Amino acid sequence: MSIHKFNYTKTFPLENGKRLKGVQIAYHTYGRLNTRKDNVIWVCHALTANSDVFDWWPGLFGEKDLFNPQEYYIICANIIGSPYGTTNPLSINPSTDQPYYLAFPQFSIRDLAAAHELLAAHLGIAKIKVLIGGSLGGQQAMEWAISHPERIETLVLLATNAQHSPWGIAFNESQRLAIRADRTFYANKPHGGAKGLKVARSIALLSYRTYETYGATQLETDADKIDDFKASSYQNYQGEKLVKRFNAYSYWFLSKAMDAHHVGRGRNSIEQALQAITAKTLVIGISSDQLFPLEEQQFLAKHIPAAKFIAINSFYGHDGFLIETKQISKEIAAFLKQAAPGKTVQAFI
């Protein structure tokens, strides 16, 4: 495992017509590119994750997992706007020599995919064996597979959609309302909006899990208790945990990018855009996902040519795509074997 940084010194045009004067992209690589250059697994990460996929997706990525560095050359790039080494709102604006903060230009999911394309070109990667992503990561993978279908051999989309829903946008806006209510957000300081970000994370958790999840993990056993409930402590803890590793400005811009996700924009229709995908595609949904319900993945599988749809049973809600790795590994392994008959797929644990 190693982390790298790619500095693109030219102007990076954004979908909305604005520009970034150069982009730095942080990325992790695991394993080695084989002589045929046909063992590349490219991972697109979700909202607050980073490029160290072995850290946040164990069970699917690891030494003894389905995607392992002995067999594959695994790449995960930190996305624009994220504070884990790639150009983001806390980066220095070359025009002012001060951090961008709220002056950072708004970007889209399509821009995130364009940055992946730049990095792939820099690394000399012409073909990606498997492109995989869940949630916002799935949105990126989808955009990339539409814009450069010739590069992607197999596409795996988990708990994602072709257009962000009004339900998802409402959750994101509620989180941004919490951030805006924290007046320090407008102070242009590295920790500006921290209290609002804590509340935003608490709101987000309700969309990531379910009634049943909280009932199983946060249920009280003391009938005499009247305060300091487990569920309250959990919300506070998770909010503080994100504040320590993220920032409100990155969260603000990334949530807006997710809201604007629409693969049909400028491509006549969503259906027509999805039909441009030529990769062998597996679409995975989580049965209890309330944020990206199964009908959104069924829609993808219906309109992506010859795509296969699988529903994973889980009571973890949207977070099931990160947790149910045993089931997901089994389904992906079977799909890869079917997509390339005669070739073996590394055993997984």
From TrEMBL:
Q: What is its main location?
A: cytoplasm
User: Gene3D superfamilies of this UniProt entry?
Assistant: alpha/beta hydrolase (3.40.50.1820)
Active-site residues are 135, 289, 318
EC number, UniProt record: 2.3.1.31
| Signal peptide (from-to) | none
UniProt enzyme class: transferase
This protein's pathway reads: Amino-acid biosynthesis; L-methionine biosynthesis via de novo pathway; O-acetyl-L-homoserine from L-homoserine: step 1/1
User: Which controlled-vocabulary keywords does the entry list?
Assistant: Acyltransferase, Amino-acid biosynthesis, Cytoplasm, Methionine biosynthesis, Transferase
Q: Where in the cell is it found?
A: Cytoplasm
Task: Write out the catalysed reaction.
Answer: L-homoserine + acetyl-CoA = O-acetyl-L-homoserine + CoA
Entry's InterPro entries? AB_hydrolase_1, AB_hydrolase_fold, HAT_MetX-like
Every AB hydrolase-1 domain range: 40-314
What does it do? Transfers an acetyl group from acetyl-CoA to L-homoserine, forming acetyl-L-homoserine.
Q: Which family does it belong to?
A: Belongs to the AB hydrolase superfamily. MetX family.
UniProt-listed PANTHER family: HOMOSERINE O-ACETYLTRANSFERASE (PTHR32268:SF11)
Summary of subunit composition and partner proteins: Homodimer.
Protein name according to UniProt: Homoserine O-acetyltransferase
**Upper taxonomic lineage:** Bacteria, Pseudomonadati, Bacteroidota, Sphingobacteriia, Sphingobacteriales
